[in-house]
Amino acid sequence: MKLTYEGKEEYLRKVYASWLGKVIGVRLGSPVENWTHDKIMEKYPDDEGYLVDYDVYAADDDTNGPLFFIRALLEDGDITAEKIGDAFLNYLCEYHGFFWWGGVGVSTEHTAYENLKKGIKAPLSGSIETNGLTMAEQIGGQIFSDCWAYVAGYDPLLAKKLSTMASSVTHDGNGIEGGIFVAVAITLAMQRNDIHEVLEETLEYLDHDKEYYKVAKDIIAFYQNDKSDWTRCLHYIQENYGYDKYPGVCHIIPNMALMIMAMCYGDNDFDKTLIILNRSGWDTDCNCGNVGSIIGALLDLDGIDEKWIHPINDIVNSSSAIGCLNIDTVSDSAAMFTKLAYKLQGMEIEDIPMFTLPYATKGIRCNNGSIEVKDSKLYVDSKDIYTFAYYITSDLYDARYDPEFSPIVEAGDSVIVNIESDGLNKYESYILDCEGNEYTKEHEINNSGSLNIEVPSGINLTVNRIGIRTDNSYRITDIKIERKPDLSFDFRDYPLEHYGPRYGGDSMNNIRGFVKHSGEWDIDEGLIGKSNDHALISSGCYGNIYRRIEWDFTVEKGEECYVVFNMRGYLYYSALGIRGNELVLIEKNKQEKVIHSETIEWEKNHRYHLSIERKENCLEVYFDDKKYEFPLTELRDLFGVYLGKNCISKTYEMKLN
User: Fold this and answer.
1) Residue 3 burial (C-beta neighbours within 10 Å; 0-12, 13-18, 19+)
2) 485 preceded by cis ω (within 30°)?
3) 497: which of 153, 252, 510, 565 fits an S-S bond (Cβ 3.0–4.6 Å)?
4) What domains lie within the chain, and their CATH numbers?
5) How many CA atoms lie within 13 A of 634 on its CB side?
């Protein structure tokens, strides 16, 4: 099969079903990750659905990876392993969130990230030569590779090429074989009807001399000789390919063997396959995520029971360094994957209507009544619906992978909701901020029209929920955000979010609406930042445009402190502030470049006011009441504060509009 314009809806649906299968598998396996089969059967002997009601599931490494490593394709269609490695550096926070930071020489991803920071480019960053065999053949090359199938456009050779490059950033040897297996299997499953055919054909794309291929063939042979009882195959795997036979924390071979077993004994049935796999133990969320993606691609949406789909409510959250991207939906990300698939084939497709996909609720919830997606509309039969613009502590189940969010709707923005109804109806829109304050507005629409929900400006106002109340049923056809940020922060008494237990067992505390990329950040009569090598914190949304930025701060230690803007990640931003005895404008495009500087005098522990205003031909900058003109550049996207080496700084206030 090949991608065609005429087949874009079919391809989108296949990608959606596969990605949804991934999200389901991760959610199913998370509560028993790293448990043994015996422990799982003792605790959950008869459970055939989700083991825990997560409600809003915070974040997981298995879904983080596909959502952000794929973004290397957004920058440049000419993809390389090195560019995927750059995506690691751009979208990951340093040493927290996203995946398991177990230490260099223990966690493969942590080890590879440190290599990338040192300038060791992919694929050397993940090679056996650099890291040794044990690190190279842990499970990570496999668990993040689903996305390369989603953009391969039915082409298994392209899926193999892309997954090989991506896996090589962190892995080598059998670790790369696992990435190939997952990506190719999903690609073929979109075009086949039987999982056994998919498995046999997929293995032909692997290196037959590698252990990965040989063990997979062995498990298939066991199944062919004994198809009656999957537990006998499980015992065979435990005895011959168990964790005790392989080095490292989470080796790829034992877990792959369980995946092959579950697909063989699952009889082309989504429920049966995932329940077998989850009951088998070991790395359950990773294994169920990969197999859920393969089986989802095979069976399409019709083969996935709604009991798995409805609890997700189309939500997939993340824990990257870009807070506004950490609040996402399954359907929107499936649309992104599909657009990238067409881009790789030299074709552009138009924007996909919001409610094209079944179950694409966009995270909208109802307090009573019901909502349903059909006919490319959201049918609402509820007196009160709402969606999250930002998550406070009580909204999330846990904080295992350090989720940090920036609100996707901010002070000054407008949310435009297009509505159809029958007759003249009255609506009340409402905005609930994180302090529990509610802002309401009355609307009246005859048959069809738009609700313009305007977010008020206010100091430290952070939107938590946006909702609609009415006594009538209606249909939502589209929702748009008009970005007109009018942001004002007073950090002298700024709130923290206490999200609860992290992956390591300690508690996670976040500065509301901000993501800590690096360094230490806290609130103590101001936003305190401390750095050894560097420190960066950010907030805001992609698409924001500012006319003016104001920043009140002191430097207590060090000589390098900036306000950041134009930020699209750690590798791409502008910054203006103090460096030594100069006021400098910096642009970072992977490498840092000084654009302009002015000599200044300043002293430590003195409070300064820096303002930047975009004029027609320049940036008009005031520092300590003195005016300077800097070269014109945009004031947009994310903003924040950056500190150089051995610096301590306090931000008192910040305004952007």
Assistant:
1) buried
2) no
3) 510
4) 13-317 (1.10.4080.10), 364-483 (2.60.120), 514-656 (2.60.120.560)
5) 12
